[in-house]
Amino acid sequence: MKQENTASEKAKNYGLLIVGAILLIAGIAFAIYTYNSSYQNSVVTGTQLKEAKAQLSAITEGTASGDTEALKAEITRLSDEKLSLERPYSYSLTLVFFAILLTAKGIYNALIGVPKREKYDVKRLAQAGLLAALCYIGFAFFKIDIPVGPEKASFHFGNVFCVLAALLIGGYWGGMAGAVGMTIGDFTTSYVTSAPKTFLLKLCIGFIVGLVAHIFFKLSRDHSAKYVTGVTILASACGMAFNVVADPLVGYFYKTYLFGVPQDITSALMKISALTTSVNAVVAVIAASAIYLALRPALKKSGLFVEP
Predict the structure, then answer these.
(1) What is the average per-residue pLDDT within 164-184?
(2) Vertex 238, ends 232 and 244: CA angle to 5°?
(3) Which of 34, 154, 187, 203 is deepest in the core (most CB within 10 A)?
(4) From the CB of residue 155, how many other CB atoms can be counted at a distance below 10 Å?
(5) What is the per-residue burial (b if ≥16 Cβ within 10 Å, else e) of 222-235?
(6) DSSP-based three-state secondary structure for 142
(7) In angstroms, rounded to a whole number, what is the distance separating the alpha carbons of residues 272 and 278?
(8) pLDDT of the residue at 8
(9) Which of the 8 DSSP states describes residue 257?
(10) How far is residue 306's CA from residue 173's CA, in Å, rounded to a whole number?
(11) Element of type H or E holding 144
(12) What's this model's pTM, rounded to 2 decimal places?
């Protein structure tokens, strides 16, 4: 009787699988098209930009002559044009990664089933939206850029809210909040080519933090203050440890093989990224843990605490 009740609480659903498969096919077709069109044009523009910067450097050093103001204006124009041409390819890759996620969830829904909708879904969705916005703000407005050739790395606070989201609302919703918020941050800044990588890695950070905190150690249940503190720090550290290793490594292969960035630049970017990611990780573990430990009792008292 108990097994029948449990089974009745779930129903197999194929809708998400169909949507995910359609988006995946469309995303791959879009990626192939944009790579062969706008992205190839951006490569040409990038070559022109590199030549213009070299010419400006020569004029500055006194080894050549020319109109520096006109050259600076040309560099700005070429930079904007290159970024604009790179956007469609970045959008397509992000769509592919998102479609893969939907397809995987669709396969799960089709094989295992979908649990009946609970009352806290709307509350969790609202919290996820708020945390996604905080992830965006933490990255887009609180960062320090470090140029590495034509690429960039940065110190930022986005990971703080990505980890916090997973601690508050679980790995899936928290990972989605971090992925969506920081991917939009990339789309609206000069980091647009990193958007697909950001979506994937921030989603994984949320999954790992949520897995450790809520699946392994059941953080959402009542525990002693010492236990909650230890698990919070451990889960945050696990998510950031993954990012410290994965961000430079994935970034190297991503930039080299999907965007064709020269290996000497990606190697330098990997080294700088390892430094910035490590610093970001330490800040994220300390800040996210402190904020969660401060919010947890207040949310429980107000009835806004959601068990993942």
Answers:
(1) 95
(2) 130
(3) 203
(4) 15
(5) eeeeeebeebbbbb
(6) coil
(7) 10
(8) 47
(9) I
(10) 11
(11) strand 143-148
(12) 0.85
Question: If pLDDT is split at 50, 70 and 90, which confidence band does 227 have?
Answer: very high
Distance CA 257, CA 236 (A): 31
**116 contacts 10 by C-beta, under 8 angstroms:** yes
Retrieve residue 257's tokens: 């093989």
Which pLDDT score is estimated for 5?
46
Rg (alpha carbons) of the chain, rounded to whole number? 22
**Which amino acid, residue 135?**
C
- Cα 212 to Cα 121, 150, 166, 224, 232: the distances in Å are 22, 37, 10, 17, 9
Q: What are the Cα distances from residue 100, in Å, to 14, 110, 125, 173, 210?
A: 15, 15, 21, 17, 20
Please state, in angstroms and as integers, the Cα–Cα distance from residue 87 to each residue in 24, 141, 176, 188, 250, following that order: 19, 20, 22, 10, 20
- For 183, residues 6+ apart whose C-beta sits below 8 A from its C-beta are 94, 195, 198, 199, 202
* Beta bridge partners of residue 147, listed in sequence order: 152
45-63 per-position pLDDT tens digit: 988 988 888 888 888 887 8
d(CA 161, CA 279): 15
- Helix (H) and strand (E) counts for the chain? 10, 4
Q: Which residue, among 126, 201, 190, has the nearest Cα to 163 in the 3D structure?
A: 201
pLDDT in tens, 243-273: 999 998 888 888 887 777 777 777 777 778 8
Residue 20 has pLDDT above 50, yes or no: yes
**Averaged pLDDT, 22-49:** 93
pLDDT at 116: 62
- Between 163 and 50, residue with greater pLDDT: 163
Burial of 278 (0-12, 13-18, 19+ CB in 10 A): middle
The burial class, CB within 10 Å (0-12 / 13-18 / 19+), for 270 is: buried
Mean pLDDT of 168-182: 94
Helix (H) or strand (E) holding 51: helix 40-61
